[in-house]
Design goal:
Strand content of chain B: 25-35%
Largest interface: A-B, 35 and 46 residues
CATH topology of chain A: Cytochrome Bc1 Complex, Chain D, domain 2
Number of strands of chain A: 0
Order of helices and strands of chain B: HEEEEEEEHEEHEEHEEEEEEEEEEEEEEE
CATH superfamily of the largest domain in chain B: Oxidoreductase, molybdopterin-binding domain
Number of helices of chain B: 4
Helix content of chain A: 55-70%
Radius of gyration of chain A: 22 Å
Helix content of chain B: under 10%
Oligomer: heterodimer
Radius of gyration of chain B: 22 Å
Shape of chain B: globular
Distance between the termini of chain B: 32 Å
Strand content of chain A: under 5%
Number of domains of chain A: 1
CATH architecture of the largest domain in chain B: Alpha-Beta Complex
Structural class of chain A: mainly alpha
Strand order of the largest sheet of chain B: 1-2-3-4-5
Number of domains of chain B: 2
Chain lengths: 104, 408
């Protein structure tokens, strides 16, 4: 290899080792939502203020529990969720991460 | 992935960065998982800056839990294993705003002499002191509630005990010269909400409590500067009280002449106004008060749920106990589901706010399954219930925690 290139490569290596900024990086988010109707809406409405693991680690809530959670996001934290998306969001969350009501 | 060694980790990152032409980030390689003993309790073990791989509950903001085995390493929880709990997604604040040049603590409000001071000057101007104290999240053990409740689903690893070093809050408040109308003190850290609609994380403490010499403005834990994720460069330490008050990256102390009504004091972090914070499962509390002191807890740390032990082979069972600051008087141990109890031996005390180690000789008589229990009592005579208490926010769990082992 051309010694000049070796020098540059060594420089890159040293910069990488000594770069303190790199020491202070947070590992990436890894959570992926389960497929299902309404998933895109949750991705659009619920990932703005926190990672989606806030949602996926909840215990299996009944639909009323998910509706209450969405209402809390709107009233306490100002989540800009339009009223007409609440049902779709709650259905997806109940279906994928909740306790669907027993079939009659 | 388990790469402990810093040089090796650096090497991997350098190699990945050069080969892949991208910024290598620790944790990119598939993470190991950790199973919590409750439904939907599968978690990743992820390595964060200055931390060993910890149980990740959420990533933005980071919430990390300590694996139970760590508490068997000793009564001081290592900094690299200490739990992390943030609320606001803009957390932790970037390192740039926390450097000695950039960071200042302000004391403002109902004071005659407002203060703005660097960490170095804070440590020069005020007497430096230490306390060994447990920090515990209000919702530690929430995932174990039955019936389950919403909120952060942690096992029992959102606690830790450290030797905190810093200056007394009371000394700083006195130097600022409180006005006679002073009623409460507010604490704000540098972590900020990501939208203007989310309330900033500010906590209030009544003035008489703020003047208690036990409260510290800490710069170090366990002989090292605070880790970034535990509040570098300054955090409030409120011994005996839940972590919600231990504001991290503390940069503003405001003395007020009224009762603060912010969201994180009300309606958040409230417990039923009842001596044991307990109400009928599924019901709603009539009146609530801010959460404050720890109740009594104890854990068996030398034996994990489900392990095998040999019949007839004597061993020393070990654990920890703590309370809100009266100190632990007694720990008892049962290997028959609570029919008979034996006294354990208490280890050296590191002060009334720390973990207290306990040990007891035990000769497993088998074969079969056995449920081991440890139960602590504090100097006020308060102890732990055998049946879990319940409240809708999932706070203050302190039931006797069973450990089931298999004798072979």
């Amino acid at each position: 290899m051309n010694p000049r290139w070796l020098g540059i490569l060594a420089g890159v290596l040293i910069a990488a080792v000594d770069s303190p900024a790199d020491e202070w990086k947070l590992p990436p988010e890894t959570i992926a939502l389960k497929p299902g109707k309404g998933r895109e809406v949750v991705l659009g409405q619920c990932a703005m203020c926190h990672s989606l693991d806030y949602i996926t680690t909840q215990p299996p809530l009944p639909k009323a529990g998910w509706v209450a959670s969405i209402e809390k996001m709107r009233s306490k934290y100002g989540a800009p969720v339009p009223t007409n998306s609440v049902a779709l969001l709650a259905d997806y969350l109940t279906e994928q991460y909740g306790k669907p009501a027993a079939k009659p | 992935m388990r790469v402990r060694d810093l040089n090796r980790r650096r090497f991997i990152r350098v190699a990945a960065g050069v080969a892949g032409g991208m910024a290598a980030v620790p944790g990119l390689i598939a993470n190991e998982t950790y199973e919590m003993p409750f439904e939907n309790g599968s978690r990743e073990l992820v390595r964060y800056p200055e931390k060993r791989p910890l149980i990740r509950l959420t990533s933005r903001p980071p919430q990390l839990e300590t694996p139970m085995a760590v508490f068997n390493e000793g009564i001081l929880t290592p900094n690299d294993a200490f739990f992390v709990r943030y609320h606001l997604a803009g957390s932790p604040p970037s390192r740039d705003v926390l450097t000695p040049d950039a960071f200042r603590l302000q004391v403002v409000g109902a004071v005659r002499k407002p203060i703005e001071i660097s960490i170095a000057d804070l440590l020069r101007r005020f007497e430096v002191t230490e306390v060994v104290a447990v920090n515990q999240c209000s919702g530690n053990g929430r995932g174990l509630f039955t019936p389950r409740v919403g909120g952060g689903q942690m096992g029992n690893g959102a606690m830790g005990c450290a030797r905190w070093k810093g200056v007394r809050l009371v000394d700083v408040l006195k130097a600022a010269e409180l006005e006679p109308a002073a009623k409460q003190v507010l604490f704000d850290g540098m972590d900020k909400p990501v939208t203007a609609t989310i309330p900033d994380f500010v906590k209030s403490i009544e003035l008489d409590q703020a003047l208690d010499p036990d409260l510290l403005l800490a710069t170090e834990m366990n002989g090292q500067p605070l880790p970034w994720l535990n509040g570098f460069p300054l955090r409030l330490v409120v011994p005996g009280h839940y972590g919600t008050y231990w504001i991290k990256h503390l940069h503003q102390i405001t003395v007020v002449d009224s009762s603060y009504k912010g969201y994180w004091m009300d309606p958040a972090y409230r417990i039923p106004d009842d001596p044991c914070a307990h109400i009928e499962p599924g019901s709603k509390p009539r009146r609530t008060v801010p959460i404050s002191r720890f109740n009594v807890r104890s854990f068996i740390t030398s034996l994990a749920e489900g392990v095998q032990v040999r019949s007839g082979e004597k061993q020393r069972v070990r654990g920890i106990a703590f309370d809100g600051g009266s100190g632990i008087r007694e720990v008892t141990f049962s290997d028959d589901g609570g029919k008979t109890w034996r006294g354990a031996e208490l280890g050296r005390s590191e002060g009334r706010f720390g973990f207290r180690e306990w040990t007891v000789d035990w000769k497993p008589a088998g074969p079969g399954e056995r449920t081991l229990w440890a139960k602590a009592t504090n100097r006020l005579g308060e102890s732990q219930p055998l049946e879990a208490l319940w409240n809708p926010a999932g706070y203050m769990r302190n039931v006797v925690e069973p450990v089931k082992v298999r004798i072979v």
